[in-house]
Design brief:
The structure is a homodimer of 203-residue chains. By secondary structure, chain A is α/β, with parallel strands linked by helices. Chain A has one domain (13-186): Pyruvate-ferredoxin oxidoreductase, PFOR, domain III (Pyruvate-ferredoxin Oxidoreductase, domain 3, 3-Layer(aba) Sandwich), CATH 3.40.920. Chain A has helices at 25-39, 86-92, 122-130, 136-147, 153-163, 169-184, 197-202; strands at 13-20, 43-50, 58-66, 78-83, 96-105, 117-120. In chain A, strand 4, helix 2 (86-92) and strand 5 form a beta-alpha-beta unit. In chain A, helix 5 (153-163) packs antiparallel against helix 6 (169-184).
Chain lengths: 203, 203
């Protein structure tokens, strides 16, 4: 994707996760936050807002990562959007950066609003690998771990071990690694670098 | 404490939870948020920020509840501060409302920065009731449930059942109810109504 973040600049890196209630969106966000902050040494704000939109069963959680202080704690422009359902994809695909990346569960998200997208059958991978649909969030977390430019998969594994409810760390790690593997098997270089014509010109 | 919220006004009600890592502060905040939003019908923002402060092992989570839209998602002035450790109490006792309320675990918080305080041995109650120190967060949540003016203990019980990691709902409810009982046994009317002399005059 973009170059690894090694230059110490302190711009924001923003991740939004969306799905339906009970899919483990908040746990995934808390794990991302802890991996970035406790293991990666970044400043992190992690939040979920519940409003009228939650009535439809949609669920959203956000993680803002920075090297410097974070003045506004919620996502301003999305670098990575995870969508586990079509409804979440429709509702949360806004403020998407021209070079942002959508990760969609191909099992449920059929209408893709951008060509900057990776579509993988997270739910099917979870079922095949662990037999538990509830590990879909961890498969998707593996994909986020591969494509994001700040949080490493090694730090994510530490956070998964610390944060998984009693007895579920091993199965969660198994699902996470299946997500990492499936994402690494993709050729991301074929994605358009940006969906904004102006940005393409600048490059 | 203050009158129950029945008038439909949409001011903010702000709860900050502090402890050390591993005490279940984030889970308690997520449960408060879901009780308020999904069961109570309020607008809610729930967040945790990780910065240099987290290095000391301190952990903070915040819940902002309102009847109208929430424009700024983090706590501005604290209505309720829960402090499970002295370090958390020292670090997070700021922007405290004159009529705010501090809930402190008397087992660990010896120096109390306000007289608007309820000091209860949350950890000891957890050990006596469930034999598990990890249910301290649920005992404290029971206290928050009694003293806050928006979120009901019935809604909190529903959220505890939905959000407790597999197999822990019953023990969590047991701890929660012990916290409710211990707090209801206190005579809160003896607390000063406000720590601000000006506010006392206004009343």
């Amino acid at each position: 994707m973009t170059a690894a973040k090694k230059d110490g600049s302190d711009d924001r890196y923003e991740i939004r996760l969306g799905g339906s209630g009970g899919q483990g969106i908040i746990l995934a966000a808390v794990i991302l936050a802890e991996a970035a902050a406790i293991h990666g040494g970044y400043q992190v704000c992690q939040s979920q807002s519940y409003g009228p939109e939650a009535r439809g069963g949609r669920c959203k959680a956000e993680v803002v990562v920075a090297t410097g202080e974070i003045d506004y704690p919620q996502v301003i422009m999305v670098d990575i959007l995870l969508a586990l359902t079509q409804e979440a994809c429709d509702a949360y695909f806004h403020n998407f950066k021209p070079n942002g990346l959508l990760l969609a569960d191909s099992t449920f998200v059929k209408q893709l609003p951008t060509s900057r997208v990776i579509s993988l059958p997270f739910t099917r991978i979870a079922m095949e690998k662990t037999g538990k649909a509830m590990t879909t969030n961890m498969v998707a977390l593996g994909a986020v771990g591969v494509v994001n430019r700040l949080i490493t998969t090694a730090h994510l594994e530490k956070a998964i071990q610390a944060r998984s409810p009693h007895g579920s760390a091993q199965v969660n790690l198994q699902a996470f690694r299946a997500g990492v593997k499936a994402t690494k098997a993709l050729d991301l270089s074929k994605l358009p670098r940006s969906v904004s014509p102006e940005e393409e010109d600048e490059v």
